[in-house]
Amino acid sequence: MKHFTNVHDIGPLDSAVKEALELKANRFAHTALGKNRTLMMIFFNSSLRTRLSTQKAAMNLGMNVIVLDVNQGAWKLETERGVIMDGDKAEHLLEAIPVMGCYCDIIGVRSFAGLKDRDEDYEERVINQFIRYSGRPVFSMEAATRHPLQSFADLITIEEHKTKARPKVVLTWAPHPRALPQAVPNSFAEWMNATDYDFVITHPEGYELAPEFVGRARVEYDQRKAFEGADFIYAKNWAAYAAPNYGRILSTDRSWTVDAEKMALTDNAFFMHCLPVRRNMIVTDDVIESPRSLVIPEAANREISAQVVLKRMLESL
Ligand code: AN0
Ligand code: CP
Fold first, then answer.
1. Considering every ligand atom, which ligand is closest to the CA of 237?
2. Contact in structure between 167 and 195 (CB atoms under 8 Å)
């Protein structure tokens, strides 16, 4: 695998999940593969799970790991070409990227959407510059429009817990006080659309995702109707995609919060969320704490999804 930014980069999902479950059962079987290889993780944004799980996955493979928090201790980076750099940014990404590439074999990048300029976000400028100028295989640790390591972990988690060949999976918008990117719901939709699951998306009007991510999903504006007979409820907030409201909060309506009464409409569904989650905004305490909540197994599978991706990248170095 050269780069990993979306579902297409992983190839057939059945073999990816099979490899994931094999690695999960025997995670130290490939320690020779990463010996004397260095992973560099670059964070433009905060992280708990991605940072820890990806580092753990790399260590499972025998790799060395370097982590850089761009906003803590590095020079402030300019990302636009052609800018007269007379402001507070001391270094340009166009030098910083090839320099980072000198010190490692594989690069992971986290760079969220700015939520101001839709075209700029959807062009994926930052991660694409890493792909173009680092000279190294690059993988996304959540970019502007997708979070593929999360979606892969979500898929593994569903495959481990499903009891029907074709489960009903519902992605539901839920309220949040801050504007959040569409990366997680876009990516989840992209991966679900690559399965044969019955896939439904529910959100208030105005929160439509980009059509290329909605794909074959059924969109249902009535959340209760969407929940009927569901096997998995995947909650997430996102800010509006559609112009002219791109990046804006249109609603904080807590009637969309996932609670026990709504979960009772499902077929005893599992509850999923990528975390971090705001309790009693996105989901009530009792639902996230219930035995049907998969939020911790999902987070645990982040180590596994990262390990599959790193293993495949190491194999093609
Ligand atoms: C981020 C987001 O919604 O994209 C990261 C989720 C994994 N969430 C927050 O910033 C709270
Ligand atoms: N789910 C996830 O990516 O979490 P972090 O933002 O903590 O890495």
1. 1
2. no
